[in-house]
Amino acid sequence: MKVLLLTGLGALLFAYYWNDNFDPASLQGARVLLTGASAGVGEELAYHYARLGSHLVLTAHTEALLQKVVGNCRKLGAPKVFYIAADMASPEVPGRVVQFALDMLGGLDYLVLNHLGATPSGTRARSAQATHWLVQVNFLSYVQLTSLALPSLTDNKGSLVVVSSLLGPVPASFSRPYSAAKFALDGFFISLRRELDVQDVNVAVTVCVLGLRDRASAAEGVRGVTRAREAPGPKAALAVIRGGATRAPGVFYPRRLHLLCLLRGWLPHPRAWFIRQELNVTAAAAA
Ligand SMILES: NC(=O)c1ccc[n+]([C@@H]2O[C@H](COP(=O)([O-])OP(=O)(O)OC[C@H]3O[C@@H](n4cnc5c(N)ncnc54)[C@H](OP(=O)(O)O)[C@@H]3O)[C@@H](O)[C@H]2O)c1
Fold first, then answer.
1. C-alpha 114 chain-centroid distance
2. Probe target for ligand 1 pocket from 41, 63, 72, with the most ligand atoms within 8 Å of CB
3. Does the beta carbon of 175 sit less than 6 angstroms from any atom of ligand 1?
4. pLDDT value of residue 10
5. What is the CA 150 to chain-centroid distance, rounded?
């Protein structure tokens, strides 16, 4: 009996985590609007989509970086790649970006929301003004892009893919503005998924929880502050793409983050002692 139970549990876990029915051919010709495509996770997402033959509109803040990524996507075989440089700190910009994508691609199958306004360093990072700016770039622009793209995604039974972080579902010390925006994304998109579901609207919403990546700037930002381990960037981007293509509600990369998120529900108030084991508190407070 015990063996049967364990085998059944193992099969369930296998089905949940590994058997995601990902069909790379499903992305060939798919029309994708990708934000934050000039660097980091977004750049890697762009290269994966390009290899898979998707039609792309890429956006980010810096035009020169976008042009480089567009050139690389073409070399990797993307049949159509367009770009639009845009600053998501301006409330009128998301509308322009979605309209450009609809004009260039004739509709959307995927909206991949990934851009991230950098948190300034020092105490300024925790000021109300900095938080206001970060919430516009890292949350409100996501909401605007979504509402403008939703009619086309609905027509095409498309997908919304949201790149978030462990600091969305699990708050950490010394990351208030970043965590606040990521928590808001979690609440907004999970609620939206439920609304679409009860209205029988066939648009998938995939929220991706990523841990610290192996990018130099990410590692530099937390050097001496946390003992968190880094994970490979291209694999993180591929996990996001697989999750979106299979219409999974959630992606956790690395997978152990799922356990941390579950623990957060069971142990909502970790002791300060426990947090200090992970953090160099003096360095974090000064950062
Ligand atoms: N890196 C990590 O370790 C890590 C860990 C967990 C989750 N994540 C998540 O992964 C996503 C990407 O993070 P990342 O580390 O790859 O970021 P990144 O390397 O700093 O890249 C951020 C992207 O967002 C764009 N961007 C920044 N400010 C913008 C603005 N005002 N308007 C429009 N675009 C803007 C940047 O464009 P420009 O370069 O042109 O400014 C760039 O393309 C984020 O949602 C983040 O929360 C990252």
1. 5
2. 41
3. no
4. 67
5. 18
Q: Domain containing 263 — which CATH number?
A: 3.40.50.720
At 171, the pLDDT band (50, 70, 90 cuts) reads confident
Domain assignment of residue 5, yes or no: no
In the structure, what pLDDT confidence band is assigned to residue 266 with cuts at 50, 70 and 90? confident
Find out whether the beta carbon of 46 lies less than 6 Å from any atom of ligand 1.
no
Give the pair of three-digit tokens for residue 241: 């793409």
Domain-embedded: residue 9: no
**pLDDT tens-digit series, residues 107-159:** 999 999 999 998 766 555 567 888 889 999 999 999 999 999 999 999 999 99
Q: Which two tokens stand for residue 158?
A: 């498309």
What is the bridge-based pairing of β-strands 55-60 and 250-253? unpaired
Assigned token pair, 13: 């876990």
Q: Which domain holds residue 157?
A: 24-286
CA angle 136, 138, 144 (to 5 degrees): 65
Residue 7, in any domain of the structure: no
Structure tokens given for 212 = 């610290």
Residue 117 CA, ligand 1 centroid: distance in Å: 6
Provide the number of structural domains found in the chain: 1
Tokens at residue 197, please?
Answer: 């579901």
Contact by Cβ (8 Å): 142, 113: yes
pTM for the model stands at: 0.88
Which amino acids are annotated catalytic?
Answer: 178
